[in-house]
Amino acid sequence: MILRVFLARASDRLGAETRVAPGADFRAARRAAERVGASLILGDRPIEITLERAWRSLSLRDRWRLVRSVADGRSASSPSSPSPSPSPSPSPSPSPSTSTSSSIEKSERDASELIQMALDDDDILSQYEALLAREFPSLIAPLVRERDVFLSLTIKSSYAVSGKRRVLGVVGQGHLRGVVRALGEEHAGQFRELCRTPSRELAKQKVLGVPRPLATRLAIDSSIGLLACAWWQG
Description:
Layout: H1 2-18, H2 24-36, H3 47-57, H4 60-71, H5 100-135, H6 140-162, H7 173-183, H8 191-194, H9 198-204, E1 206-207, E2 210-211, H10 212-233
Antiparallel strand pairs: 1-2
Helix pairs in contact: 1-4, 3-6, 6-7
């Protein structure tokens, strides 16, 4: 829960900085898939696995700092003045007398402004990643690097089993470079390792045919119930 609150606040702040609402990549993927009749595959690692691996990567000191930052209603700190770039002001609609060259110049100018906005957003993302690496360096691997690899493996497996000539991966801007890099690397067979957590390993163990976590919980609840009955009757 602590990590969920921490990441939700960071996501909201980052969305405000980059003028992109959290989850915009999911909505864009859904609209594009519906438009062309493509199958939509949710390819990110389950959030429960990511959160458990992230939490277990933190030292006791870092966990306490994270608890304090959430209790204070803020992240550990904020990046050094990552002020968003102003959105380009809309240009007036061209009159019928506007020449073709003017339209081309306007298109080039608009494209240049969009590229600059993307570069500014990328700079903001880099600042936030640098902040995370400075304040909680152990979170970089489970929250960023591992998911880059996981997403690249999903894209590759989707291509392998779909029988299509191409697949399209839609990812958040913060993962774009990492996923592209991972696509050019060899990570075959890492799905299982990237999904490994102690709780999932325990769930595979059986006690009298019952999953170990459930058996442990039943034993604890039964002990509490017996103690309560003994206290009540005594």
